[in-house]
């Protein structure tokens, strides 16, 4: 199950990605917004709470650029959010960083590209191995926040 959310700048892109998720039969919890003006830190926090609780495995977040909402998401311990606008980054953030949230910008990428990035993000496994040491370091940084 996925948790998804957006601010008003990412609303249209989120709605297009939801159609794609529906076509793929992927279940999700939509944490908003519904097109109204909202503050992206609130949406990021609510969406990430579904991941850190274990209710959802991963998340998708959208704002105008993808940057603000990724910064907000990364304030939540246990979240490794990556703002991506290309295939390679979306794939390798899963393979090497075990990212659990993909962030994208509604004013930056097309819906077609966004759906490709979602697919590679969801379909790519974390490699572990030599990368685990670094992911463990990220987890230790999270513990310092608490």
From TrEMBL:
Keyword match ATP-binding: no
SUPFAM superfamilies reported for this sequence: Ribose/Galactose isomerase RpiB/AlsB
InterPro entries on file: RpiB, RpiB_LacA_LacB, RpiB_LacA_LacB_sf, SPI_LacAB/RpiB
Catalytic residues (UniProt): 63 (proton acceptor), 96 (proton donor)
Positions of D-ribulose 5-phosphate binding: 7-8, 64-68, 97, 107, 130, 134
Keywords attached to this entry: Isomerase
Known EC number: 5.3.1.6
GO BP, sorted A to Z: carbohydrate metabolic process
GO molecular function, one term: ribose-5-phosphate isomerase activity
Membrane is among the record's keywords: no
UniProt family annotation: Belongs to the LacAB/RpiB family.
Entries under NCBIfam families matching the protein: PRK05571.1 (NF004051), rpiB (TIGR01120), rpiB_lacA_lacB (TIGR00689)
Protein name per UniProt: Ribose 5-phosphate isomerase B
Lineage of the species this protein comes from: Bacteria, Bacillati, Bacillota, Clostridia, Eubacteriales
